[in-house]
Amino acid sequence: xxxxxxxxxxxxxxxxxxxxxxxxxxxxxxxxxxxxxxxxxxxxxxxxxxxxxxxxxxxxxxxxxxxxxxxxxxxxxxxxxxxxxxxxxxxxxxxxxxxxxxxxxxxxxxxxxxxxxxxxxxxxxxxxxxxxxxxxxxxxxxxxxxxxxxxxxxxxxxxxxxxxxxxxxxxxxxxxxxxxxxxxxxxxxxxxxxxxxxxxxxxxxxxxxxxxxxxxxxxxxxxx
Length: 224
What we know:
CATH topology: Alpha-Beta Plaits
Helix content: 25-40%
Protein name: EthD domain-containing protein
CATH class: Alpha Beta
Shape: globular
Number of strands: 8
InterPro entries: Dimeric_a/b-barrel
CATH architecture: 2-Layer Sandwich
Largest sheet: 8 strands, antiparallel, barrel
Order of helices and strands: EHEEHHEEHEEHHE
Number of domains: 1
């Protein structure tokens, strides 16, 4: 599963959240699972009080699945309901990412989706620092985070493309060049001393100055 389709969504003032979820759960996400190469479909709800509040992620066998003809055909066969809803959303921001690194806990590995995810968007301020930042993240930062009880897996991705599908371009969230998922089996991880230590090392503070970060927390809402 080297690809990821990553979609932030927010219904906004023009669409009722109940209708947004009904459309997503009963029409939009199931349709994507008919496309060869889509491995799963998961929806998460933000727990940090920020917007966009809804995240959909789809593991893909490769990033190219999200530009394949069967996937593009979904737009031509979309229902009138979908065609009417999407432009009215506050946000429906679709990104294609490619997996660049992953590390898992062999004692907690499972085919079930992780219930709690720390989502980290990262841009490197100076392109000449990218290799250094990536080496630190993979070789030091993730191993430090992995010491947190309940840690399941960390995955890192690099952005391939991004597009805002709603008509409201003013509220489009920034698409970070790098994305990390840190997955846990409980929601208490941020307060654990091991996690606090991992996110406050001198190296982490040093590399923070070389990057722009966005940190979000989400919990599993629905598995399809």
